[in-house]
Structures
1.
Amino acid sequence: MAIVLAPMEGLLDFVLRDILTRVGGIDRCVSEFIRVTNTLLPERAFVRVVPELLTGGCTLAGVPVRPQLLGSDPACLADNAGRVAGLGADGVDLNFGCPAKVVNRHGGGAALLEDPQLLYQIVSAVRRAVPAHQVVSAKMRLGFHDDRRAEECALALEAGGAGEIVVHARTRADAYRPPAYWGRIADIAAVVRTPLVANGEIWNVQDALACRAESGCHTLMLGRGIVSFPGLAHAIAHAGGAPAQGVEWHSLHPHIADFWHLVRATLERRQQAGRLKQWLNFLRRHYPQAQFAYDALKAVNDVAVIDAWVASLDGGLAW
């Protein structure tokens, strides 16, 4: 199965993309959304969210990153898609799945699933603006209030020219509550020819295999699951075969240290301690040892103290 790293606002930014693609097993990334309203954004606005555009559109591990745009105006999205495509990414992704109230209130994200005709207009306008050799992909949920129009929405995206559709197998009303309805992706696949990617509630290898069986998809998008278990892509690749390497807790020590060094170098000081604790909070879902690390740092905001803690990783003293 091919693995795509999900766009997750406030979590899967360029720092964590860098680290997780170093761990390996990820074939492609999609960036956090870049909000498009009524203006043509300057190039620096795209680079701020996707600094990988300065390195050939790839992370330092060589994994492509596709910028994602969020908005509701076809012409404005098309203008911005053409500009970001010109910066060298492998394509442009469109957000039709964000469940945030502030986004939906302004007609963006999952709210667009209420209007399949507008979905068509957006995708077709963007497709015309992006060079033919670059992919225009889209990420959708099963619907807004319910999933009755899921197939209609996917058909609209296909008719507009989407070359790939990621389906988060929940509605906006479902938010992130389990379960994800992977079987509904198979229903969509029965009516569209566009390649589909399955997303939602994939936390471990068993989930990945069940999702593949129920959805029929051989490409999966991972979000919180791979943040919690950075070796998940490797583990999926080795399911039923030789044991996966590089997924043990001790093998994460250098990656956690590198993550902290990148945070220190690129983020504002007031954000730094919180970002490390945020990742440790996810890691403790899979690794019992991460609980000790989280407990040691959860009340610490002094970056000098965390510097010393990270420096002790080589000797295993922090664990």
2.
Amino acid sequence: MVRRALLSAGGTGGHLFPAQALAQELKSRGWRIHLATDQRAQKFAADFAADDIHVIRSATFAGKSPMALVKTFGVLAGGYFASRRLISTIEPDVAVGFGGYPTVPPLLAAVHKGVPSILHEQNAVLGRANTFLAGRVNALATGFPLAKSEHKHVVTGNPLREIVHLAARLNYETPAEGGRLRLLVFGGSQGARFFSQIMCEALASMTPDLRDRIDLTMQTREEELEPTKSVLSKLDMQAKLAPFFGDMPMRIAKSHLVMCRSGASSVSELALIGRPAILVPFPTALDDDQGANAARLETEGGAVLVRQKDMDAPRLTAMLEDALKNPKQLAIQAANAKRAGVADASQRLANLVEAQLRVKER
């Protein structure tokens, strides 16, 4: 008998990548996969192992005015009834949600139609959409132990794409004493203006002999690309700059040190691949989910957590100089990060999916 899973995720990489990894695992077990998401997912859809992709309208509570709230509820209600029709058509055996408001209509419809339902929370803090759904589903899986939650949950780790597992096969190369340091800097799917600015300031204040030993690869916002190139050119640095790197896991694997935000996917990839990192959480997140993620890896000794308000050019300069002078410490951090990685997260989550199916069949 063919088994069908309805996966639902917000249309960003942070939600879609773990859904993609689970889809690949379930497909290998003979499942048919349907993905419910929003219009933003189009740039990721080509690589998604789904038999069909269904765009469901959704909205985020971005404003507090009565008119904005009415509009948001109207869109969500439309998505809910569209999801009910979709579930009646494809008759999934299990529904799995990965967070973001586009998860709400399909998962709520699945619950109301009696479909066994699972939520996966990537972060160490439940997001708002998952908080709303957590008490309604059959099981809650998480990428990290939750920092605080009243809900019983199973820690599966974050399912990661095949490219991440391939990158994880590359061993860490400890920088040679007095040698070059391969530094990778990125700020999530949209980049981070702060990183471009602080990195240029820190490099400018370094002594030329140390600065010349850094091979920099940095994700830079489109509008910051030329100004950043100009600054680095004046410092005689030939850095690799781009608004987006499609092969980020491999670039992580080839780096000696990473500086980045601490979204769940980034932290999980750093751990699985095993690379030392300076983690600077996104500062305005409502629930400080990135701070909680970063704290998990710092506790394992695989990263250093620095709040953006505490990160200035002198501090970053000192951290880079320390990395250049103490390569063995980077190797220790890399090994610590590697031990924190969860290589079988996709299998764990797929096992949980199939366990819910067995409960349904009893």
3.
Amino acid sequence: MAKKLIDLVGITKSYGDRVIIDDMNLFMNENRFLTLLGPSGCGKTTTLRIIGGFESPDKGKVIFDGKDITDTAPNERPLNTVFQKYALFTHMNIEENIAFGLKIKKKSKSYISDKVKYALKLVNLSGYEKRMPDSLSGGQQQRIAIARAIVNEPKVLLLDEPLGALDLKLRQDMQYELIRLKNELGITFIYVTHDQEEALTMSDTIVVMNKGYIQQIGTPEDIYNEPQNAFVADFIGESNIIGATMVEDRLVEILGTRFKCVDEGFGNNKPVDVVVRPEDIVLTEPDYGIIKGRVMSAIFKGVHYEMEVLANGFEWLVHSTVLKEPGTEVGIFVDPFNIQIMNKPESEDEEVLVEE
């Protein structure tokens, strides 16, 4: 059974009259890769900084392994932080950069030497001890920043958009490196990003945030396949989000046409939001679909074609490996299991969670 390592209890943080985090409650288990995901200004970096001790909450507590560390200084917490800006000491070589924290702790030279070599081996940069930071690529500098953090053997590694400055290929390579490091080191990773693909690729658990509130917590599969509201559905991947009416259990009316679904418990004739992912729409011959439409545009995206199909007054976004030329009349079919039903917001407090 997973052990609870960090517990944020009633965390509130404001800057002036602007509330950044509002009464957040969140726990994080040991040896997990947890990602705080959301748009700029959602509170994810502030949450990370409060965990790291770089910010103090206005209200609430930070509990670490059962101990209240809310007022504990950053350097006295059993964690390390890797920022987007690598913050390497330019006047020190790589060995000196990595060893800096260990020297402050007055570790022996032989201990430091062994730890530096181990850390460089973990990040696949053995032999770089005497190189200077400015002689390294961005990806290599980021690896050194990670090595400097893990050499202190923290229980938790905090990462604040550490791959944001890298190009796409390097960023993807580093994603797999971080997964490997987490598995080899057996420590907890808490990762901040606004990149949905990054979160889906690396995480055990994703916490989706917006405007200081937690929208949804779950595995990547849960977040993608079972979004709890329109914000999550729209933020995580591409979606068709449509206002609809839940006629009864397992039957929903979308744009005037009734579709079978698998959801229950929403009541009868209740307004709901429906999510259908573009890859879950099957284009058929016109008479074989649930509704008929016409292809308005088609773009080749490499692994699939992205098409817009106008049907029942709505432009459906469709991803398919089979091209239907613009102007073609088609049918739209969606498997009942691929229609996700969500409650509409019932109050202003709920609406703030789902507005863009």
